[in-house]
Amino acid sequence: MSAKDEILGRIRTALADAPQAPEVPRGYRTSSELDEEALIELLVDRLVDYKAGVDVIEESQIPQLVADKLAGASSVVTPQGLNPQWLSALPGTIARHVDAPGDRRSVAELDAISAVVTSSAVSIAESGTIILDGEPDQGRRAISLVPDHHVCIVPVSTVVQLLPEAMPRLTITRPLTWISGPSATSDIELERVEGVHGPRTLDVLLVRGM
Amino acid sequence: MTQVFLGMPAGGLGNLVETEPFPAAAHRELGNTQMRKNLRHATHTIRDKRLRVVGELPDWEQLRDAGSAIKNSAMFNLEERLLEFEKNFTARGGVVHWARDADEANTIVRDLIRETGSTEVVKVKSMATQEIGLNEYLETQGIEAFETDLAELIVQLGHDKPSHILVPAIHKNRTEVRDIFLKEMPDVDPALTDEPAKLAEAARKHLRAKFLSAKVAISGANFALADTGTLGVVESEGNGRMCLTLPETLITVMGIEKVLPHTDDIEVMMQLLPRSSTGERMNPYTSMWTGVTEDDGPQNVHIVLLDNGRSRVLSDSFGRSALNCIRCSACMNVCPVYERTGGHAYGSTYPGPIGAILSPLMTGIEVEKNNSLPYASSLCGACFDACPVKINIPEILVHLRGEDVDSQRDKHKIPTQMDLLMKGGSWVLGKGKNMKLVEKALPLGRLAAGKNKKIKKLPGIAAGWTQSRDIPAPPAQSFRDWWSAEKESK
């Protein structure tokens, strides 16, 4: 008998008493009552708690803020689908790399690049979580992982209060990365310390009117 | 002809058994005062954090109810859910393997690694691979496995054993961690301090080259979605993202009980899990992948679905809810027994209250010394209150104690002291007349207690009771005598 058949047979035997699967009571919160200002305030509070940098800005300020955040960087990588306008205020001294289908940056190249700028798909204010889903303005998972500094654009229209509100906005079969603050660990004495293997600096630009 | 499986499903193999009775192991561990101090500090820190973030959610109890029902419904239709998951994961380019037990899982993983030609792998922290002893097995096969989670790294470098499912090195404090790094990391800065941030940085430097060059990664999974074939890993450091993203081959080993029926179920689990485990509103990183994504991440993707005693747990209609466990560790963080004995005393990969039920349920109560585990509890119930999926651990502990007593009776044939005591007890307490008769022996007890009015040592198995406490002398008059005297005088 194959392992699969044997395991499924064991499960059938184990459930010979035919227990009835319960209805799942979904009495938890599924919709928000917060207005936009309260939502922004909540998300900012959570991100600051995680020791992420956060600025609430207008769309027109993006190029300047991106340039400010990358002031200390020597190079930056962006996904192919990122609005090129957003990098228009970067000084020429910062080397620019684009990760594009058919023209990928290798892992070693990414390791030598100081920062990455991406957009994001959905954010959850209550838990301070930003979700990337690999769309062209966010790119492959590797580019937002290997460089040590992540500048992430979060349009206010993509922010919800609760996780259940985020679910209908996600395509679950895309490669998803949920990010809640910079890389951290609680492994020594269960105290949280920021900065291990993922980007040690996370800067969030929360953009109104987008 | 279709073959029909009959009888009790096989028990789990691997790191699931106590090799000495819990009381003996606990007694030794209690002598380690540094460990007790470390554990007390860590468990109290996490308790406070957990209470704070749980208290923030007005619908915490509704989430627990939903979480419990989701897991029950997954377990009660486990065959259908697994087949659905297999179909969807396969349709997206993943390969599904099935393993009856630890040995079979280890062999499958070895063969998959050999096919790639690689002799080393990077690993994301995984309870399932700990349970089957994968690292040790691979070493005997000439394959080196590098743990990349900070706590696992501490344990691996320290030639130690994990003592907690979330924070395997919880028994070590920062100074001990620094000493391990100084001794075992070849490229470490000799001026390394014991500041946690510096220790984390040392781990980053140590593992960086491994991540960037690894061809094969091994992971566990926190959940698998049946309706889409999606897998998820919940982590903090980014070592998980590294392993799940950069290598060409990804092999996931996952217990069959991790399957969730619907995509929407993660909206419940991802609220319950981070708050219950690290006491955070959300863990820093969660990765989800569905088979192979062209041009993004590993292109050779496998999953090993592991039974190893889980179907045996499922066959116990009273204990099967132990499979609902999402490995958050909230139960051990609040347990007064775990806080004092530490995780090593439980022998198995799964320590604490959940381990005290899961290990004997997976192996069978009669295996090795696992029959001592259900007694490793004062039945205070703190674990049940903390459990995000409402596993009634105290009730299952009592159920397993009953199973143990039954299995002992079957073994011995002749009645044990406990049997005789219980029989005697039921005779005494069964009738007022009998009780009265026994009470006539009260003066005898007073005599035994002597001048200082304490009984210091009881005979036979009752000696366990007086091992750490005295019994006060019985009163001169029984309650029943006092009561009838009281009635007469009115």
UniProtKB/TrEMBL annotation, chain A:
Residues 111-207 form the LUD domain. It comes from the Bacteria. Pfam families: LUD_dom. SUPFAM superfamilies: NagB/RpiA/CoA transferase-like (SSF100950). InterPro entries: FTHF_cligase-like_sf, LUD_dom, NagB/RpiA_transferase-like. This is LUD domain-containing protein. Signal peptide: none annotated.
Automatic annotation (TrEMBL), chain B:
The keyword Electron transport applies. It comes from the Bacteria. One of its GO terms (molecular function) is metal ion binding. Residues 466-490 are annotated as: Disordered. Keywords: 4Fe-4S, Electron transport, Iron, Iron-sulfur, Metal-binding, Repeat, Transport. Residues 322-391 form the 4Fe-4S ferredoxin-type domain. One of its GO terms (biological process) is lactate metabolic process. This is Iron-sulfur cluster-binding protein.
